């Protein structure tokens, strides 16, 4: 499955009917458009294996190793689930995301899955660069203290920690406020993917939301955007085209045949016995 011009045009048409507002911080921006995630995966050749007439979306990678499920009718707080099956070099892993996770932040994770970044960095680096407070070696929180990151070892049988991110209402005295959304990465999730999610989450640039779009919390700050709806659509299309090119390049590198050195051959003389 690939993203068609018709699908991109439909997204642009939807945006054209909205007045965009710059919305920040990102962890309070609200869910946004699912297409930020699904269009990126489709550009990498992921195919839909769900009922096209149902609300649930299930996408599968070309090698059948990865499976993403989006279920807006879930009875749990988890609307997104991504599973990776084991292969010859990597173990299985699992990640999940709540209803109000911004789609652009989740897309940072899925983009890194299908088009790995050239340079990998410490997952904490984008967080500290954005002036998030490190509570300890394995925890941090946003400047407004509403979004929390924790790296936890579940028990003595897990030698690697899992990651848990959640956004909550402001604290009520000693108690945490109600949860707004969460993200969870098990202990086998590649660190580079966790880092990509945290990079997109801590990015201080605003996300665009329509005037009546749902945000994660009333503390979200919204201001009229300097971008027009067409510019927002063009940026989306440019990202999809960039992803498509990066995926093609990676596949060419992966399938490039190995070259063997040419050996010199000594021709025997016909007169040689």
From TrEMBL:
Signal peptide: none annotated. It comes from the Bacteria. InterPro entries: DUF317_SPDY. Pfam families: SPDY. Residues 61-116, 141-206 form the DUF317 domain. Residues 246-273 are annotated as: Disordered. Residues 246-255 have a biased composition (Basic residues). This is DUF317 domain-containing protein.
């Amino acid at each position: 499955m690939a993203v068609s011009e018709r699908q991109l045009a439909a997204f642009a048409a939807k945006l054209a009917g909205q007045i965009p507002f710059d919305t920040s911080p990102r962890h309070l921006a609200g869910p946004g458009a699912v297409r930020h995630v699904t269009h990126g995966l489709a550009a990498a050749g992921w195919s839909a294996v769900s009922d096209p007439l149902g609300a649930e979306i299930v996408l599968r990678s070309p090698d059948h190793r990865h499976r993403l499920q989006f279920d807006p009718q879930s009875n749990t707080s988890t609307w997104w689930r991504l599973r990776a099956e084991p292969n010859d070099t990597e173990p299985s892993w699992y990640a999940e995301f709540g209803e109000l996770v911004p789609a652009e932040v989740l897309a940072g994770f899925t983009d890194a899955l299908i088009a790995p970044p050239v340079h990998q960095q410490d997952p904490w680096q984008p967080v500290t660069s954005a002036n998030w407070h490190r509570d300890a070696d394995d925890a941090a929180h946003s400047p407004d203290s509403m979004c929390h990151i924790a790296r936890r070892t579940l028990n003595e049988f897990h030698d690697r920690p899992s990651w848990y991110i959640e956004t909550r209402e402001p604290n009520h005295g000693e108690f945490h406020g109600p949860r707004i959304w969460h993200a969870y990465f098990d202990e086998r999730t590649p660190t580079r993917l966790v880092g990509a999610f945290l990079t997109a989450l801590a990015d201080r640039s605003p996300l665009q939301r329509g005037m009546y779009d749902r945000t994660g919390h009333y503390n979200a700050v919204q201001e009229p955007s300097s971008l027009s709806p067409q510019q927002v659509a063009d940026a989306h299309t440019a990202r999809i085209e960039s992803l498509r090119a990066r995926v093609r390049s990676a596949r060419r590198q992966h399938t490039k045949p190995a070259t063997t050195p040419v050996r010199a051959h000594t021709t025997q003389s016909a007169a040689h016995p």
